[in-house]
Design a protein that fits this description.
alpha+beta; 3-methyladenine DNA Glycosylase, Chain A; eight-stranded antiparallel β-sheet; about 25% strand; DNA-binding
DNA sequence: CGTTCGATGCACT
DNA sequence: GTGCATCGAACGT
């Protein structure tokens, strides 16, 4: 069942928590690729120094100010696309960053995309590492700039509820930011092999 | 296990 | 020109 817009039109911390166990599905020319969400982070409002809305509205962050249930995809570090789901009613700039997935459909396709351009071989890549990390999962699912601003409530890129229950969750400070580290707005499945970050933050 | 560092493009000051 | 919501290789412990 595809998540409805009402799912996203809620407090961002609730959405970040409830997205754990949901499934990101991307149907493309190479077929279906998908994975179960095991790690997310919340970015909330102009008062959150780590949120892209912190400087106020700009051309890049405009999707954050729009209606919930849309994708916010941006390019970072000159080589990675990062995938967010916009949350809260229009006018409240906030989103949930998808940080890691447990692979479901299209594992071979995702493996090949992950090693393309590198000297590594697809067979050397552990299944749990295929969608571990926000830059890795967008490469595996072929999520890029053309998915920015797309509607997540109908294909080809959607998030579904398939009834998975991953058990206990844990909260920690967000990873990879230099400001706003005081907020424990990262959610993850403790001990899951597909969760990213240093070992201490995976338990 | 940990830290450091280069790759690489663009939004923003 | 500066600074990234990153990744993986290389190296030290």
């Amino acid at each position: 069942m595809i998540l409805r817009r009402e799912f996203y039109a809620r407090p961002t911390l609730d959405v970040a928590r409830d997205l754990i166990g949901k499934v990101v599905v991307h149907d493309g020319a190479a077929g279906r690729t998908s994975g179960v969400i095991v790690e997310t982070e919340a970015y909330i409002g102009e008062g959150d120094p780590a949120c892209h809305a912190a400087p106020g509205p700009t051309p890049r962050n405009e999707p954050l100010y729009g209606p919930p249930g849309y994708a916010y995809v941006y390019f970072n570090y000159g080589m990675h696309h990062l995938f967010n789901a916009v949350t809260e009613p229009a006018g409240s700039p906030a989103a949930v960053l998808i940080r890691a997935l447990a692979p479901l459909d299209g594992l071979d396709v995702m493996r090949r995309r992950r090693v393309r351009g590198t000297g590594r071989r697809a067979g050397d890549l552990d299944e749990a590492a295929v969608c571990r990390g926000p830059g890795n999962l967008t490469r595996a699912l072929a999520i890029g700039a053309s998915q920015n601003r797309t509607d997540l409530t109908h294909g080809p890129l959607v998030i579904e509820d398939r009834g998975f229950d991953l058990g206990q969750i844990a909260w920690s400070p967000r990873i990879g930011i230099r400001v706003g580290t005081d907020r424990a707005w990262r959610v993850y499945v403790p001990g899951h092999p597909a969760v990213s970050g240093p070992p201490a933050l995976r338990r």
